[in-house]
Amino acid sequence: MIVMILGLVIFLGMHSVRIVADDWRREQIARLGEPSWKGVYSLVSVVGLALAIWGFGQTRLDPSVVWFPPMGLRHGVALLMIPAVILLVAAYVPGNAIRARLGHPMLLAVKLWAFAHLLANGRLGDIVFFGAFLAWAIVAFAAARRRDRAAGLTAPPSRLPATLATLVIGLVGYYLFAMHLHVWVTGVPAIAMG
To answer: Which InterPro entries match (predicted)?
Structure first.
């Protein structure tokens, strides 16, 4: 559990610099240059994420069960992950209406992903792991919206083809991950058959 928590602190801490120390972040970018800052940011983030994932896997070897979620919640997770994947895709497809309307779809995707996984997992390691991501995404989304308002940002124009592409890519991505890749990546089937 300690390794997982350390990884979460490093990963989410690095991703929180703009929230808690934006002036310091700007100073570092000015001092190092944007490419070097992005390199350091990425390296620290990868190390933190690797530790968090490895530590998370270790918590499953000797789990502490806090509660036993009803089996039906697994279906809820499967349903919540559909919009989560679409929101994730919306963060990267330029000109889609989802991003224009919601502003920060990646953070909303993380919120949905974490919340959905909290519903169906009652082990302490799961609660800490997904709970940390949920808490971070809530704070990061609120901070991003405040920055947008302070900067006077308005929704960019959107195009129907980009929005349709976002939906199609999101649905295909959901299908591929849920039906084929989830078990390979996590060792757990996303959707229990039978």
So the answer is: NnrU_dom
